[in-house]
Amino acid sequence: MDYEKYMNICIQLAKNGEGNVSPNPLVGCVVLDKDDNQISTGFHAKYGQNHAERDALLKLSNGEEKDGTLIVNLEPCSHFGKTPPCTDLIIERGIKKVVLGMRDVNPKVSGIQKLQDAGIEVVEGVLEDECKKLNEIFIKNMTENKPFIALKTATTLDGKIATSSGSSKWITSEIAREEVKKIRNRYDAILTTSSTILKDNPKMIHKKKIILDRNLKTNLEADIYKNGEIYLFNETLDMFEGGVNFIKAPIKEDKIDLNFVFEKAWELGIKSILIEAGGHLNGNALEYVDKIYQFIAPKIAGDNSALSCFDYRKITEISECKNFTIQATEMFGNDVLITYYAIQ
Ligand code: AOF
Ligand code: ZN
């Protein structure tokens, strides 16, 4: 049986929930009949709504799933949350075999045990690495009680994000910038700074925006404030006014304490953050970042006084560099997207 083929379909289906299921995981499901013909698919579309397995099984009403196989990227749940346990419906519908990608890291879930106790065969670990990558946000949230932090930057071949005068529009092509919108959609909030707002007046359309503006230098009429929930971290004000959540933050080494920002974000229910800022913030955030999306355009600025994408620190030996592991490279028009992870 080519379980990997169906698991890939589950992963693709699961991605339909991007932007709508947080704090839940992304889950997709395929159902085969007893002769291994695909008879239904489903996915978790929105937080609070049906899980993927329920979505797929409820589309079947003639019992054709009896003695069939259910494939899903995450261990089916066995607890009552916003929805009843998926295991109960799987058992009720007479499924004979469940194939899953990864165990659920939610301690409330023990679906494998429940399915096996009901006499269902369980095959585990199909495309496990891919399934874990798909739900890297959910895994970090559940195991560490912290938001997942990603960072996006767009640079020239020599790692510049602007010229020395601040000109930065546009480094990458339109098709790369369209991809950025899709990336944003994977995260609960975006984070940027007053310097980026003052330099670029970006729109950054998103549901939730975290803005670091220590001295409240930005104009609340700037484009970024025109939509979304705003969390404005600063040194003095702590209040809700004019649709903006002003949050007073402590200062550490002359900057807003990022540790405080991420802890506060977690308290506010923000499970994942995409940082889109300049070299200074990018450098400071590097210690917290789980994943980086770097778009590179085939251009050389050659301007030695221009800021690079990470103004991190001064070192003497190349062996002191912070190291990463590259997960993927993709082309968007003439630009490359490199996705890489911090080595823990
Ligand atoms: C599945 N399939 O499609 C999802 C699962 O409050 P609830 O009812 O939505 O339950 C949320 C928990 O259920 C979540 O923390 C995770 O453990 C699991 N999510 N499980 O079998 C799904 N979304
Ligand atoms: Zn479930």
CATH topology name of the largest domain, in short, is Dihydrofolate Reductase, subunit A
Question: Would you identify the regions where 5 or more consecutive residues have pLDDT less than 50?
Answer: none
Q: Main sheet: which strands, in order across?
A: 10-11-9-8-7-14-6-15-17-16
What is the overall pLDDT average?
96
What would you call the quaternary organization? single chain
**Overall number of strands:** 17
What letter string, H or E per element, gives the SSE order? Answer: HEEHEHEHEHHEHEHEEEEEEHEHEEE
- Tally of discrete structural domains: 2
Number of helical segments with 4 or more residues: 10
Q: What are the distinct ligands in this entry?
A: ligand AOF, zinc ion
Query: Which strand-content bin applies to the residues?
Result: 25-35%
Derived structural class: alpha/beta
Shape: elongated
Work out the helicity level.
Answer: 10-25%
How is the secondary structure organized here?
Blueprint: H1 3-14, E1 28-32, E2 38-43, H2 52-58, E3 69-74, H3 86-92, E4 97-102, H4 111-117, E5 121-123, H5 128-134, H6 136-144, E6 148-155, H7 174-185, E7 189-193, H8 194-200, E8 208-212, E9 229-234, E10 239-241, E11 244-248, E12 251-252, E13 255-256, H9 258-267, E14 272-275, H10 279-285, E15 291-296, E16 324-332, E17 335-342
The structure holds ligand AOF and zinc ion (ZN).
Zinc ion (ZN) binds at residues 51, 53, 76-77, 86.
